[in-house]
Amino acid sequence: MAAKSDDNWKSTACVLCALNCGVKVQLSEDGSEIVRTKGDDQHPASAGYLCNKASRLNYYQNSADRLLSPMRRRADGSYEAIDWDTAISEVAAKLGAVRDTWGGDKIFYYGGGGQGNHLPGAYGRTTLATLGVRYRSNALAQEKTGEFWVAHRMFGGYNHGDFEHAQVAIFLGKNPWQSHGFHRARAEIREMAKNPDRTLIVIDPKRTETADLADIHLAVKPGRDAWLLAGIVATIVQEDLQNHAWLSEHAEGLADVIEVFKDVDIADCAAKCGIDEAVIRSTARTIAAAESVAVFEDLGVQMNRHSTLVSYLQRLTWILGGNFAHPGTHYTPNGLGNLGAGKEEGRSPVAGARIIAGLVPCNVIPDEVLSDHPDHYRAMIIESGNPVHSLPESPRWREAMRSLDVSVVIDIAMTETAREADYVLPATTQYEKAEATFFNFEFPENYFHVRPPLFTAPDGVLDEAEIHMRLASALGAVPPGIEDELNEVLRSAGREGFREAVFAKLAEHPELFAIAPGLLYRTLGKTLPDGMQNAAALWAICHQHAMGSRASIEAAGFTGEGMDLGDALFDGIINGPSAVIISKEDWADIWHRVPGGSVNLALEDMLADVRRLGEETPAETSSDFPFLLSAGERRAFTANTIMRNPEWRKKDADGALYINPEDAARLNLGEGSSARISTQVGALNVIVELSERMQAGHVSLPNGLGLDYPDADGKLAMTGAAPNELTSNALADEYVGTPWHKSVPVRIEAIEA
Ligand SMILES: Nc1nc2c(c(=O)[nH]1)N[C@H]1C(S)=C(S)[C@@H](COP(=O)(O)OP(=O)(O)OC[C@H]3O[C@@H](n4cnc5c(=O)[nH]c(N)nc54)[C@H](O)[C@@H]3O)O[C@H]1N2
Ligand SMILES: Nc1nc2c(c(=O)[nH]1)N[C@H]1C(S)=C(S)[C@@H](COP(=O)(O)OP(=O)(O)OC[C@H]3O[C@@H](n4cnc5c(=O)[nH]c(N)nc54)[C@H](O)[C@@H]3O)O[C@H]1N2
Ligand code: SF4
Ligand SMILES: [Mo]
Fold it and tell me: Start-end ranges of CATH 2.20.25.90 in the chain?
């Protein structure tokens, strides 16, 4: 399709990973497709950078399994299209019945956003509060909650590294060449590799693309990072390499840490993790001697054995050298919203699992449905998430969904999860409504990015905000006349009068807090610049932020007396041509976010675990399941399940199983041959690719494959293997339930041709 003239570039963001790089796109003549993409130079963080995936965004927007009508499951399991009025009234009636009979706490909410699509989460609250939903979760509770919890207990908040300036950068179970995780990753890693004054350390059993560029690659045995890190910390302690001056001023608990690590047997650690003691010691010295160190831990350890302990140990490797709150080290970011808060908030009702950041651990959700316990979940609302595919043990998830009294999925496509639901409600895509970036962790300047839609939504779909407001209305939570009243105030008294009216109303009728986001969408939203209605919820978030962070917002150039500052911030981000700097701080400001201005070094439960490491004999495999599978690797063409059309992949079409050539030879597996891979949970057929990058005994499958997509005849065909047909809810971290996806014991057999 011919492109429009060269000057018709629109500014938006890539939605394929959480960075949401600024991207400029050119649309086709008829305005229905993205035909060209380039980096957005005006974006303050991505600054024109894009990875290989962004040029394929049209596959997200124009997908053959796009849903254009609400769907209802028939008794025989097939689906029929129904109109919106029917869908809303039936869904509201069924959820309302669960609430009235069993209580709103029996309705579970999952999702609310992914790598993008963050604003719907704010509107979801309208339905949740109306129904009295108490338990919820999302994908963060299968990867980051352990890290959040540890960071919260040590630093009072989430830490991010200043990789751009770090003298020593460490990637722990993280392959930023493919997965990014910080802006301009490939450019930054190349810079680290080139600069002789900087040291790039990669800890990964696999020789990844990032490891290729590393000064030090520690090819740890899969699942054994705890011993490696304990050995590094023990070296720092036993060789007395700590920054005592810094620690005495900024931290507490050093004596307890020393007490435990002075007894750690470094030779035993070395033997267990597969890295020479001499290398452990020299790496520890390099880290301890550096002027600045930044560490990025990710799924290789967060979805692995001892994951919470590893989140603690890796922090000790750098905090003992004082690598916090100065350039090139770590910081607690300051942004809109409070992402990364790691407070423990009670326990889940059936399994009694620890709730961190308000999220029930993902591994217990099916158990909390499939239970006779009086408090088991009886209904589920799933929005902008695909848990049947993305959470452990897909078979158990399907069973759980089918046993619910009612289940509702809000998505743009007929996904694996939608196909298990009673009702599927179709939403606008992220390019058909205003959307915003929420994983923005920059420092000392942080930004926010709200972007307008690129396309008009097709008939039959609604913004999530509208869906939630209709549900709230049907449930009787929206007082008649309230919208008209607020719209009238907006017309006659402008934004300032509206502000006063809203706050007066909320003070008088606190129950209206429940529907506040939806009300903003229906009132303020309609007065926003073209297409920006979905950004209305940000108004409240901006006011909240302005109350706590006035100085940093003013330093970023926003002005306004009293509550005018919140409006100035809101208008600034709504009208910005790209992402906008919303916060400027000094490194010293970070200490205001650390409770008591002092880092807590000694977490008792974690130190007790360190003591036990010496006695523990690691044994991940067995004769039945002799290999360890890394289930869900990030590759050049994976993007969770955001891209459903397999044609978007330029290579690795089927998502091959990578295996070391010697292992392959022993199993009689040649390049491109088929293999059967089995676990205690299930079995799958995969295509084999030989890779010298893999250690013996360690194999890997990509994430996001095993999706059904209509072929040329409209028949569903599956590409690749869905890793969670193999994984188990039982193999999970003892503290926070994050799954051990990166060391799943498996058996591999050649399939006779
Ligand atoms: N291309 C692409 N990028 C993405 C995504 C995507 O789907 N595709 N998804 C995004 C999301 S949601 C996330 S959370 C991030 C995840 O980003 P990453 O965590 O970087 O991704 P993974 O490839 O899952 O795992 C990282 C590394 O862990 C290693 N590993 C396996 N076992 C072990 C072990 O025992 N110890 C150690 N130290 N390492 C081990 C693997 O070999 C792999 O290189 O990526 C984001 N970016
Ligand atoms: N075995 C294994 N499993 C894994 C991983 C692994 O490494 N190994 N990685 C895990 C990780 S880190 C993550 S983050 C999860 C991700 O898993 P999920 O959180 O389930 O996320 P996505 O696959 O990104 O699915 C997002 C859903 O949102 C829908 N969507 C897209 N745009 C919109 C929109 O505008 N509105 C609505 N309502 N819906 C929309 C998409 O169609 C899709 O169904 O996967 C996890 N699963
Ligand atoms: S790094 Fe992430 S957001 Fe940026 S272009 Fe690549 S996939 Fe898109
Ligand atoms: Mo993730």
Answer: 1-62
Q: What is the DSSP string of 176-241?
A: HHHH--STTHHHHHHHHHH-TT-EEEEE-SS--HHHHT-SEEE-PPTT-HHHHHHHHHHHHHHTT-
Alpha-carbon distance 189 to 192, whole Å?
A: 5
Q: How many residues does the chain have?
A: 753
Q: How far is the centre of ligand 4, averaged over its atoms, from the C-alpha of 511 (Å)?
A: 35
519 and 483 in contact (C-beta within 8 Å)?
A: yes
Cis peptide before 444, with omega less than 30 degrees from 0? Answer: yes
Q: Say whether pTM exceeds 0.85.
A: yes
* pLDDT tens digits, one per residue of 204-222: 999 999 999 999 999 999 9
Q: Which is nearest to 292 in space by CA: 318, 266, 245, 328? A: 328
β partners of residue 200: 169
CB 702 within 8 A of CB 638: yes
CATH class assigned to 1-62: mainly beta
Residues of the chain with pLDDT under 70: 1-7, 338-340, 753
d(CA 190, CA 216): 15
CATH code assigned to 620-750 = 2.40.40.20
Assigned superfamily of 145-335: Dimethylsulfoxide Reductase, domain 2 (3.40.228.10)
- Provide the pLDDT for residue 1: 47
499: Cβ below 6 Å to ligand 3? no
User: Among the atoms of ligand 2, which is closest to the Cα of residue 387?
Assistant: 20
Best of 16, 641, 699 for a ligand 2 pocket test (most atoms within 8 Å of beta carbon): 641
CA-proximal residue: ligand 1, atom 42 (nearest): 206
- pLDDT, one tens digit per residue, over 473-517 is 999 999 999 999 999 999 999 999 999 999 999 999 999 999 999
Decide whether any atom of ligand 2 lies within 6 Å of the 317 Cβ.
no
State the CB neighbour count (10 A cutoff) for residue 553. 25
Q: Report d(CA 426, CA 448) in Å as an integer.
A: 27
User: Encoding tokens for residue 138?
Assistant: 């999302």
CATH code 3.40.228.10 region(s) in the chain: 145-335
Instruction: Looking at the CA of residue 13, tell me the nearest atom of ligand 3.
Output: 3
- Choose which residue among 359, 384, 438 to substitute to test ligand 2 binding: the one with the highest number of ligand atoms within 8 A of its C-beta: 384
- Tokens, residue 160: 């991010």
Rounded to the nearest angstrom, the distance between the alpha carbon of 188 and the centre of ligand 3 is: 14
For the chain, give every residue range classified as CATH 2.40.40.20: 620-750
* DSSP annotation of 316: H
**From ligand 4's centre to the CA of 241, what distance in Å?**
35
Residue 335 has a pLDDT of: 85
